[in-house]
Specification:
The protein is of the alpha+beta class and about 290 residues long. It folds into two domains: about 160 residues, 2-Layer Sandwich (Ribosomal Protein S5, domain 2); about 110 residues, 2-Layer Sandwich (Alpha-Beta Plaits). The protein has ten helices and eleven strands. Strands 1, 2, 3, 4, 5, 6 and 11 form a seven-stranded mixed sheet that branches. Strands 8-9-7-10 form a four-stranded antiparallel sheet, covered by helices on one side. α1 packs parallel to α2 and α1 packs across α3. The mean pLDDT is about 95.
């Protein structure tokens, strides 16, 4: 029996400009999707019924799980009906704004496509993935991108920072809907995000790059702001909350400074990750030997 193995990687948001609140309640935004070396591991094999076994007891494993939704969506699209046993080694914190669930769903779609002999084109996978979540296509392609509109219009650009990235999770679950409800749209940014991330030196991002959800989230969860300040105190050239939180990241130019900050956060008991400059995720699907 074939057993498929793949890793699904987390993302961070480089900037989140909220330009307008739309009549339907959504928001017109600009955000940059980039990757960090923080991953979950999926092991998938055909079974008599679909189940998820995971080390994270807080994670729902029923039909509300995005992996299950991905299976149903793929099977429905192509008329398949196989069931699967999924063993999910969960490392990316859930509810951290790192896209772990969307990444799991994207990789499950890639596994299904391989299992059934690659019936889906890239465009079809993106179509199926988009219905599961706005950022699923980013994980399907494993390419950095600028998201515009409601975050679903993607322009794939090489915006992965050439810096060390430390990401830390304060074990807070920030509610995305509440973050957007209480945010203040600021209109068009002084510099469009694609221009800022591709043409402006990283050490100048602190003056222009921002996350417009921070003012709505940090007053309710001061630890997020404290961690952002800690990054700057530790030598980061840029720090911000990722997406709607609660994860916070810092960019560092010097390796020894980054490692010192990372070890300090670990010593305080935080879940944290250190990503090397220019990191690229590997979402290849492998057959278990």
């Amino acid at each position: 029996m074939s057993v498929y193995i793949a890793r699904s990687y987390a993302k961070i948001n480089l900037g989140l400009f909220i330009k307008n609140r739309l009549p339907n309640g959504y928001h017109d935004i600009e955000t940059g999707f980039t990757f960090i070396d923080w991953s979950d591991r999926l092991e998938v094999s055909k079974a008599d019924k679909t189940t998820i076994e995971t080390n994270d007891e807080s994670l729902p494993t029923g039909k509300q799980n995005l992996i299950i939704k991905a299976i149903h969506a793929f099977n429905s699209f192509f008329g398949y009906s196989d069931y699967f046993r999924i063993i999910l080694q969960k490392n990316i914190p859930a509810g951290a704004g790192l896209g772990g669930g969307s990444s799991n769903a994207a990789v499950m779609l890639l596994i299904l496509n391989k299992h059934y002999g690659n019936p889906a084109s890239e465009e079809q996978l993106v179509s199926i993935g988009s219905a599961l979540g706005a950022d699923v296509p980013v994980f399907l392609k494993a390419q950095t991108a600028i998201g515009t509109g409601t975050g679903t219009e993607l322009n794939y650009l090489p915006i992965q920072p050439d810096t060390f990235i430390i990401t830390v999770w304060p074990e807070i679950h920030s509610n995305t809907a509440e973050a957007y409800q209480f945010c203040e749209p600021l209109g068009e940014p002084a510099v469009p995000l694609d221009e800022l991330l591709t043409e402006t030196p990283v050490d100048e991002w602190g003056y222009l790059l921002r996350n417009d959800l921070e003012p709505a989230v940090i007053p309710r969860y001061p630890e997020i702001g404290n961690l952002k300040d800690q990054f700057y105190d530790s030598g980061a050239i840029y720090a911000a909350m990722s997406g709607s939180g609660s994860a916070v990241f810092g960019l560092f130019e010097q390796e020894f400074v980054a490692k010192e900050c990372y070890q300090y956060l670990i010593s305080l008991g935080y879940k944290a990750n250190l990503t090397q400059p220019g990191f690229q995720p590997d979402h290849n699907v492998f057959l278990k030997a």
